[in-house]
């Protein structure tokens, strides 16, 4: 093998090695660009342990899921029982996306109803529209239940039953 041939082989192998390293780096960069950010992954599923959030009957709390307010109400003993309640043991809950079904304002809890300040709409403790322009009940978010832990964003039979009751 001549010196010229050896030199050409060396240059060819060098280009090949540089191309392989460059390709590998590009693949790593592409994977990082395509993978969802940790904040996006976290926003997809939100866990709420109903036994650990200090929920008091008749005093709803609001959580955030995918940028939307989620109302969680533990009903008092004298609130109406409803097929769309989430029942855990002897407790009954209302779970709803906290956006008015008229034009999307966030209703506020006043004593025992959610009142919408935008056009006066009202929803009862079941999340059903009872007054004003809202055309339908508050929407139930998809969730699953494991013991007392809700996982928002994960469709389960409990949220399906609530959605069906409100249809
Ligand atoms: S947006 Fe709530 S009543 Fe209009």
Describe the overall structure.
The chain has 167 residues and is an alpha+beta fold. It folds into two domains: 3-35; 42-166, 3-layer Sandwich (Rieske Iron-sulfur Protein). The protein contains three helices and eleven strands. The chain has helices spanning 3-34, 38-44, 157-166, and strands at residues 46-49, 61-65, 68-74, 86-88, 91-97, 108-110, 113-115, 122-123, 129-131, 143-146, 149-152. The strands form three sheets. A four-stranded antiparallel β-sheet has the order 2-3-5-4. The protein has a four-stranded antiparallel β-sheet with strand order 6-7-8-9, with no helix packed on it. It has a three-stranded antiparallel β-sheet with strand order 1-11-10. β10 and β11 form a beta hairpin. The longest helix has 32 residues, at 3-34. It is elongated, with a radius of gyration of 27 Å. The structure holds FE2/S2 (inorganic) cluster. FE2/S2 (inorganic) cluster (FES) is lined by residues 100, 102-103, 105, 116, 118-121, 132-134.
Compute the number of helices: 3
- Proportion in β-strands: 25-35%
* Bound molecule types: FE2/S2 (inorganic) cluster
Low-confidence stretches: none
Output the CATH class name of the largest domain: Mainly Beta
Q: What's the pLDDT, averaged over the residues?
A: 87
Q: Which second-level CATH architecture of the largest domain applies? A: 3-layer Sandwich
| Count of spatially separate domains | 2
- The H-and-E topology, N to C, reads as HHEEEEEEEEEEEH
The CATH superfamily of the largest domain bears the name Rieske [2Fe-2S] iron-sulphur domain
Structural class: alpha+beta
Largest sheet: 4 strands, antiparallel
Dominant shape:
elongated
Radius of gyration: 27 Å
Q: Which range best describes the helical content: under 10%, 10-25%, 25-40%, 40-55%, 55-70% or over 70%?
A: 25-40%
Distance linking N and C termini: 83 Å
Query: How do the strands of the widest beta sheet line up side by side?
Result: 2-3-5-4
User: How many β-strand stretches?
Assistant: 11
CATH fold field value of the largest domain: Rieske Iron-sulfur Protein
């Amino acid at each position: 093998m001549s010196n010229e041939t050896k030199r050409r082989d060396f240059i060819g192998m060098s280009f090949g090695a540089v191309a392989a390293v460059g390709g590998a780096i590009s693949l790593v960069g592409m994977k990082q660009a395509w993978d969802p950010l940790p904040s996006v992954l976290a926003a997809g599923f939100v866990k709420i342990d109903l036994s650990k959030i200090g929920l008091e009957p008749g005093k709803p709390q609001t959580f955030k899921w995918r940028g939307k307010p989620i109302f969680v109400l533990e009903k008092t003993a004298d609130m109406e029982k409803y097929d769309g309640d989430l029942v855990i043991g002897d407790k009954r809950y209302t779970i709803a996306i906290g956006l008015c079904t008229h034009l999307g304002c966030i209703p506020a809890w006043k004593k025992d109803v959610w009142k919408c300040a935008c056009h006066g709409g009202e929803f009862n403790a079941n999340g059903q529209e009872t007054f004003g322009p809202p055309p339908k009940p508050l929407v139930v978010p998809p969730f699953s239940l494991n013991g007392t832990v809700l996982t928002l964003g994960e469709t389960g039979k409990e949220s399906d039953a609530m959605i069906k009751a409100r249809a």
